[in-house]
Design brief:
By secondary structure, the chain is of the alpha/beta class. It is built from twelve helices and eight strands. The protein has an eight-stranded mixed beta sheet, with helices on both faces. Helix 2 packs across helix 3 and helix 4 runs antiparallel to helix 8. The longest helix has 17 residues. The radius of gyration is 17 Å and the shape is globular. The chain starts with a strand and ends with a helix.
Length: 266
């Protein structure tokens, strides 16, 4: 794996160095690019796979922009172009999906296909927005990530919590390694995001909507909403997994993204 980060830009990681249209992977909250390692290894063929650490998370700097998914998308586009990626299939899980949709809206030349994994195109409810801001304020005041350490219990499906118990400790390890400033910024950015269903309605490329059947964070109904909005969408439901399908069943997610790559390249 190679990393690339010109001064001030987001960290990009080449998880696989292959050929053809590259696949860009955007991680969920509150983790970083490491959540994609098993998916990248499982994708058939020889694709180029690049992952990005979003602002303030993993190894990426936070920058000076006000918290917004738009700012994260613009920073991602700039960093990908600096790394030599001018057009790609972009797939994001949860928060990464929000950034992927913003990329499709703000940088359409970059996005040849969209993979939306355990995410949604709608904005937060007032209750969800208030909860994000409350957590951001707590993380900022305490300068720890304790407020989000319990998230594996919500993110993982019931099957994974029973049969894949090692995933809880893996997620906790990744969360503990994040900086409070990045966690708070991300929560505020997600709280401020708009509904982007209209982006799907006008997107001309292929779309793959992937959702864990046990996902309680962005449930199947949200996935069906996105799949029905996009003209060229396929819906993939992964059994026995929750919101973190990419680490709960990486092979199934890899197959869905390989199919998306093939559709985008045809």
């Amino acid at each position: 794996m190679t990393t690339t980060r010109p001064q001030g830009r987001l960290e990009t990681f080449t998880l696989r160095d292959g050929s053809g249209l590259p696949l860009v992977l955007l991680h969920g909250f509150p983790v970083d690019h490491r959540m994609w390692s098993d998916v990248a290894a499982a994708i058939p063929g020889e694709p180029t796979v690049v992952a990005v650490d979003l602002p303030g998370l993993g190894q990426s700097p936070l920058g000076s922009e006000e918290p917004s998914i738009d700012a994260a998308a613009d920073a991602t586009a700039e960093s990908l172009r600096a790394a030599g990626v001018s057009r790609a299939v972009v797939a994001g899980l949860s928060m990464g999906g929000y950034v992927a949709l913003a990329l499709a809206e703000r940088h359409p030349d970059l996005v040849a296909g969209l993979g939306l994994v355990d995410t949604k195109s709608t904005a937060d409810s007032d209750e969800a927005r208030a909860n994000r801001l409350r957590i951001a304020d707590r993380v900022t005041s305490e300068q720890t990530v304790d407020a989000v350490l319990g998230m594996p219990g919500v993110l993982l499906g019931e099957t994974s919590k029973a049969a894949r118990k090692h995933l809880t400790s893996r997620l906790e390890e990744w969360i503990r390694s994040q900086r409070p400033t990045g966690v708070a910024w991300s929560q505020r950015a997600m709280a401020a995001r708009p509904d982007r269903t209209h982006v799907l309605e006008t997107f001309s490329g292929p779309v793959s909507v992937v959702v864990g059947e046990e996902d309680q964070v962005t449930p199947v109904a949200e996935a069906e909403h996105m799949a029905s909005a996009a003209p060229h969408a396929q819906l993939v439901q992964v059994q026995g997994v929750g919101h973190m399908s990419a680490i709960e069943d990486p092979a199934a997610v890899a197959d869905a993204l390989a199919d998306l790559l093939a559709r985008a390249a045809s």
